[in-house]
Amino acid sequence: xxxxxxxxxxSRGFLTEGGKYPGLLGWIFSTDHKRIGLLYMYSVLAFFxxxxxxxxxxxxxxxxxxxxxxxxxTYNALFTxxxxxMIFLFIIPGxxxxxxxxxxxxxxxxxxxxxxxxxxxxxxLYMAAAALxxxxxxxxxxxxxxxxxxxxxxSAQTTTNVPLAAFGAFVLGFSSILTGIxxxxxxHRLRAPGVYWGRLTLFVWSLYATAWVQILATPxxxxxxxxxxxxxxxxxxxxxxxxxxxxxxxQHLFWIYSHPAVYIMVLPAMGIVSDIIPVFARKPxxxxxxxxxxxxxxxxxxxxxxxxxxxxxxxxxxxILVFSLLTFIVAIPSAVxxxxxxxxxxxxxxxxxxxxxxxxxFIFLFSIGGLTGLILGSAATDVHVHDTNFVVGHFHYxxxxxxxxxxxxxxxxxxxxxxxxxxxxxxxxxxxxxMFTGFNILYFSMMILGLRGMPRRxxxxxxxxxxxxxxxxxxxxxxxxxxxxxxxxxxRGARHGAEAGGNPWGGLTLEWTLPSPPPAExxxxxxxxxxxxxxxDRVSPPHE
Amino acid sequence: MNEPSHxxxxxxxxxxxxxxxxxxxxxxxxxxxxxxxxxxxWAALGIASLKSALVIFFFMHLKYEQRIFKIFLLITLVTxxxxxxxxxxxxxYR
Lengths: 544, 94
Ligand code: HEM
Fold this sequence. Notes:
The complex is a heterodimer.
Chain A: H1 13-16, H2 25-28, H3 33-61, H4 72-107, H5 116-138, H6 154-157, H7 162-189, H8 202-234, H9 247-281, H10 288-302, H11 317-345, H12 354-377, H13 379-385, H14 389-419, E1 421-422, H15 425-451, H16 466-496, E2 498-499
Antiparallel strand pairs in A: 1-2
Helix pairs in contact in A: 3-4, 3-5, 3-16, 4-7, 4-8, 4-9, 4-14, 5-7, 7-8, 8-9, 8-10, 9-10, 9-11, 9-12, 9-14, 10-11, 11-12, 12-14, 12-15, 14-15, 15-16
Chain B: H1 11-33, H2 39-59, H3 67-91
The structure holds protoporphyrin IX containing FE.
């Protein structure tokens, strides 16, 4: 049997064939899950770069005490828009919408998701919402300055354009819900023969758990933002004690979505790490069911801990106790995963290719982020570090060091499959090293600053904080240098890289049985699967 | 493939459910006039839940669907109940 390892040179799989219309229209109206995945990738990355630029400007302002390059009001707008972009436009859609779309159907042996048109519609919703958020920056009272959390009473009073930005986030929520519905249905209905639940890849398991969170929690965000808009435009008084409302209720509603949302951000990242590690350790994954069920465990327990964002907001002591306890419970399934990854590595034949480096970095940085999370989760210590730079350091470790690095790992892992070409591995490793260094210099300094008492969301600080702020700002430059090198390397690789072949890493999951890039229709005949995704002890990888 | 066969439900059942819904609406109004303190809210919520259950199970055919759809709905409702319930740890003890 001759299996094509690379689509022939003239037709580069789904990249060149399959669209109903020619050119750009063939992409923006395509219902092919892979094309939609790439549409998402390019749009999400564009916003990521905008967000990074804003982040660097924030850091630049903090290079010295006092007003350096922007005014206080501009600073408020900067961190708000940075947060909104990074959370709503980059990291929440990042994994599910990009890599979920690209690889979930292939991982279960399907030719597309269950509702391809709905899938395309959710990308359009994403773009429409992004446009609304961009418009909100330049209209009305100017860019919102509330922080990405839109807390009342400030958000109900500020003259900036909060309603439009909130409406943008509202529309984005629908895009996210539709993706979730699509994935749950796809996993239930479209698995190829032989793909039992016990043979799903751990990436698919994590997307499945994530999809449930998207479906169940996102409506809460929608409700909250609608209430906020009503409060502002009609003076509904829902959150205003003067009219019998309750400002803390806003925080409950907001975090009932936004805390589960952090699991939308991190679960799929854990999924891809669970998929990368066995490939580069050449071993069956340790504790398949433990990892799969810990995803479900994190998704369910993680949905019930939102109150830990509100320890100092005036919530009842009883609630503080309950939410603090629940928070510690989430640490258990997270730790289960970390131990299983380490056990998978144990005595493996490890090759440190770029995807593996990023996956290992995820474990390291995520662990720091997770453990500092426990400091914030215990109510007594939280009183001291709440709203300081410690929090900012903590969540960048989880979201950027964790999910962000896993995202880059996924890009490097699937790059040869998507484009059929390979990037320069040494340059990728160098870029990884630079980013890792810059990242730690930047955010570790910020955590120390926070412990020493520097509050977050201030454009100015006391002179004794100057040294570490300088260090952090230099760290941000190193980090960005690494990011740029990585993207240049990937873009060059996509254009001029060497042909990668069907299975450059020796993976056992279904995408590696297809030529690179995969053909528009994925599988000519629906595959019959007779082994698990990590059975390195039983089968050898295709075309190796 | 396993195209689900649509059960044919008689008009008689639909009309019965409809009358029941109307009756429950009347009960809601009636109960709201009796002063039961906090129980008023439980009564209103209870009747509303019963009514939506009737709509979902009969008018939206959930009764005749596969079990998995019922489980899905249950998960959703349990989640919502948990969200509301946990919030009460704050509201009740403040
Ligand atoms: C080069 C990259 C980045 C830099 C230099 C950077 C820098 C910063 C700084 C200095 C702050 C604190 C502002 C303040 O409290 O005064 C901040 C806030 C924040 N960052 Fe980043 N960041 C970067 C990437 C990211 C990424 C990748 C994410 C998410 C995935 C992210 C999400 C956030 C959020 C949510 C906030 C809070 C905004 C608020 O307080 O409302 N950042 N960032």
